[in-house]
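Weekly modeling sync, notes
Attendees: S.R. (lead), two postdocs, one rotation student

Agenda item 3: backlog of single-chain predictions. S.R. asked that every request posted to the team notebook include the full sequence so nobody has to chase files. The rotation student volunteered to paste the first one in as an example of the format we agreed on. Action items at the bottom.

Example entry:
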Amino acid sequence: MSTVVTAQGVTKRFGQTTALDDVSFTLTENTIHGLLGRNGAGKTTLMQILTGQNFATSGELSVLGQHPYENDEVLAGVCFIKESQTYPQNFQVRHALTAARLLFPGWDEEFAAALVDDFQLPLRRQVRKLSRGMLSALGVIIGLAARAPLTFFDEPYLGLDATARQIFYDRLLADYAEHPRTIVLSTHLIDEVSNLIEHVLLIDRGKILLDESAEDLRTELVTVSGPVAAVEQVAANAEELHRERLGNLVRATLRGRFDPVERDRVTGLGLELAPVSLQELVVRLTSTSNGAGNLRTAGKGDPR
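Predicted structure, as returned to the notebook:
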């Protein structure tokens, strides 16, 4: 599978603050990536650098085979939709859509019109007079209908109600199946998008904490519950991310090799096995008292 983005040793500093600290990763084509992390972790700074809106202090970066900064050829294949998207003061919704049609070579006018109907967006209303939800819907429509080879969604759907968000997820998944491309979702609504994400990129305090396929994570992560001695026996061969104890019973979140044979062994010890949600994993790994403890020397994170 081809690589769309390659970052090697990317660092970004704002004065004395390190927002990104020696970050290295790749994004593969035709994959939905989840860019996850706490507020201030460096996610937005990273996306700004990848979309040519900022530049790295050091490190090497390739987007669609070239460096993105001030590169019109690269940026024509990149769509970046964010929550705080701004438009010219006098723009109506239809003007924003027309501008997007001219900007993105892969724009699908028919799909855009269908999405406008889905979200009941008033075409002749000025963008500055839109509600937060309608403004979010406009960004979502542009991000989907652009069909850019590399599309970033940076929390643009937070203003949508639950029904509208589900429409977004459904349309995204259906269109992605017909028109595969590389999509990056940066969101705090992890449980809602967990079934969409194929690859997880977790960033914490400017460092990459996790870079792995979602399918592999599902097989590696379990919650084991039962008597202390039995849980200790299983935990000895795994990485322990979290533990809760109540009397003689323990509930531990573990990461390791939990293939069918190992799972049978665990249940044979009288223990209960349960899956670990992606949201729970993010919480455990970025908790100051658990998995991210070895990263406490990283920078203070994205200041914005």
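Discussion: group reviewed the output briefly. Residues 3-213 form a domain with the Rossmann fold fold (CATH 3.40.50.300).
Action items: rotation student to repeat for the remaining queue; S.R. to check formatting next week.
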